[in-house]
Design a protein that fits this description.
Blueprint: H1 3-14, E1 17-18, H2 19-27, H3 38-50, E2 54-61, E3 65-72, H4 74-84, H5 97-103, H6 110-135, H7 147-178
Antiparallel strand pairs: 1-3, 2-3
């Protein structure tokens, strides 16, 4: 399945955007649960244009710079809404290099094992702080049915994920120190 297709259609369903603006969204709000390389976006936009899912208008910025403003078509909206309304099966466990490292960490000295756990904890605490700062931009839970509400739900999930990771890492560190 081309999930990037639906990520792009979803953004364009909200509003028309340039490829650059789409990339900025992947670097912002979407980065907490979805990543994409810059080099993937334009080929997918080209493919979506060829399939009639999106269209674009060329806009002139300044004297020479051309940029394409992409918009979703009715066909794109229908395909997106069909995908959006379907339940999705949970994916298999994602590969996490740190957990693989931890699995074999008994080969390390106890001090080094604690060090890698503490380093990972610090990284998750930094991410958690960033997420909570993002949450503070919401003065209240947004109204259901808005894009802001959906954004808030995903943000809440990311916060819970990081809180859980921090709790787990603290427990691991404590167990390593006890042994």
């Amino acid at each position: 399945m081309r999930t990037l297709k639906y990520a792009l259609l979803g953004m364009l369903n909200k509003q028309s955007m340039t490829g650059y603006e789409l990339m900025k969204l992947f670097e912002g709000a979407l980065s907490e649960f979805w990543s994409v390389k810059h080099s993937q976006i334009y080929p997918e936009l080209k493919r979506l244009t060829e399939e009639g899912m999106v269209t674009y208008q060329v806009e002139i910025s300044g004297n020479v710079l051309e940029k394409k403003l992409y918009s979703i078509t009715e066909l794109g909206k229908k395909d997106f809404m069909d995908w959006l309304g379907k339940p999705h099966k949970m994916k298999s466990t994602p590969k996490e290099e740190f957990r693989l490292q931890l699995f074999y960490s008994s080969a390390l000295t106890p001090e080094r094992q604690i060090y890698i756990l503490q380093d990972q904890l610090e990284q998750h605490q930094i991410r958690l702080k960033h997420l909570k700062e993002s949450q503070s931009s919401f003065f209240e839970v947004p109204k259901r049915g808005t894009y802001e509400f959906s954004d808030y739900l995903v943000l809440l999930g990311a916060i819970r994920r990081e809180e859980s990771a921090c709790d787990w890492l603290k427990e691991c560190i404590s167990m390593c120190k006890e042994n």
